């Protein structure tokens, strides 16, 4: 057990002294949690194998799950990447800084601990002033998965990080809630056509506007080394058992959520339900005794994504034993929300279209 420093920083204009302290810890091989625009990351010097192994130890993360390397700008790519496929320059100009991770050939300087032994490396430039300040001050590529215990709900506040990792990391930079709330999109540029391995903050539609056809891989990684983080069949999971209802008929989805919640209540479960604002108002009277959380307007997927992980953590804190929710479509951020809920779910119910 180590002493963890919690340092509050201005999210838009981080204090240089606080950033310098955290950067010095990174250079010493310590772990520093920090906000990005997606979720909080648990950072270490990406070029120091021993420091990287400490990430896996702190999280309880298996060695076959690779890490994302964060860079201050695209100009840092030659430090960690062996070759740059043709689309990289265009994608970097359009989407960086931002929630897009690219899978590229690994440079020899990157330890195999970062890449789960693979010859590819995941890289991105984050769009958060605190993350960028830390990268510049340390002058290090920073390997950083989400700053939580492995397999659980990702952290979107420093409080979440403290709950999971206090005593396991040297420092937590508190820059307030993260603005996007789900992880970056992971795009494999070693595949043809390019393939989304993990949907995230950059929608498929935006990528296809630049690249043309982009495939989406919807499988789950086996026990061997994974090409991307976030591919395990069970991931992002709350302690409560989560039931996810999938389908295209919005009214049928909503009614099935109500039926499942009512059935769980009848069996004595403490039930939480996650819905869009309009749906929550529509069914509130049908769910007495249920902890009903509204995530945001139905047509505001950015708001729903931003609130998702905090809502799951809140329901766990309230002691619910079962959670029921539905998908929110498959366009835009809906695809990322669906992916996270699908991997978090203990039960998936698919309605006929």
The radius of gyration is 20 Å
> What topology, given as strand order, has the largest sheet?
1-8-2-3-7-4-6-5-9-10-11
DSSP E strands, number: 16
CATH superfamily of the largest domain: DHBP synthase
Instruction: Describe the global form.
Output: globular
- Please name the CATH architecture of the largest domain: Alpha-Beta Complex
CATH class designation of the largest domain: Alpha Beta
Distance between the termini: 52 Å
Give the biggest beta sheet.
11 strands, mixed
- Order of H and E elements: EHEEHEHHEHEHEHEEEHEEHEHEHEHE
- Low-pLDDT runs of 5+ residues are none
Average predicted confidence as pLDDT: 96
Helicity level = 25-40%
> Number of DSSP helices?
12
CATH topology of the largest domain: DHBP synthase
Strand content: 15-25%
Q: Number of folding domains?
A: 2
* Structure class: alpha/beta
């Amino acid at each position: 057990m180590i002493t963890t420093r919690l340092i509050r920083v201005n999210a838009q204009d981080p204090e240089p002294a606080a950033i310098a302290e955290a950067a010095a810890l990174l250079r010493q091989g310590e772990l520093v949690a920090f906000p990005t625009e997606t979720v909080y990351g648990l950072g270490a010097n990406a070029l120091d194998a021993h420091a990287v192994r400490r990430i896996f130890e702190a999280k309880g993360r298996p060695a076959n799950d690779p890490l994302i390397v964060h860079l201050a700008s695209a100009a840092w790519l030659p430090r960690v990447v062996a070759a740059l496929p043709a689309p990289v320059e265009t994608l970097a100009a359009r989407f960086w800084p931002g929630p897009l991770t690219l899978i590229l050939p690994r440079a020899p300087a990157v330890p195999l601990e970062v890449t789960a032994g693979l010859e590819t490396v995941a890289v991105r430039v984050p769009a958060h002033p605190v993350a960028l300040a830390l990268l510049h001050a340390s002058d290090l590529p920073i390997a950083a998965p989400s700053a939580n215990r492995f397999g659980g709900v990702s952290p979107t506040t420093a409080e979440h990080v403290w709950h999971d990792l206090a005593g396991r990391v040297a420092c937590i930079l508190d820059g307030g809630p993260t603005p996007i709330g789900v992880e970056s999109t992971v795009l494999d540029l070693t595949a043809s056509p390019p393939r989304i391995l993990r949907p995230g903050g950059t929608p498929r539609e935006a990528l296809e506007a630049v690249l043309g056809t982009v495939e989406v891989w919807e499988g789950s990684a086996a026990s061997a080394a994974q090409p991307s983080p976030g591919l395990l069949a069970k991931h992002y999971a709350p302690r409560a058992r989560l039931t996810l209802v999938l389908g295209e008929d919005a009214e049928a989805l909503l009614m099935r959520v109500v039926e499942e919640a009512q059935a769980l209540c009848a069996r004595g479960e403490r039930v939480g339900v996650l819905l869009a604002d309009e749906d929550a108002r529509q069914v509130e009277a049908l769910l007495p005794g249920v902890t009903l959380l509204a995530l945001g307007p139905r047509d505001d997927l950015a708001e729903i994504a931003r609130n998702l992980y905090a809502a799951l953590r809140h329901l766990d804190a309230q002691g619910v034993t079962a959670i029921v929710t539905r998908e929110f479509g498959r366009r835009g951020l809906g695809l990322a929300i669906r992916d996270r809920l699908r991997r978090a779910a203990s039960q998936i119910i698919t309605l006929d279209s």
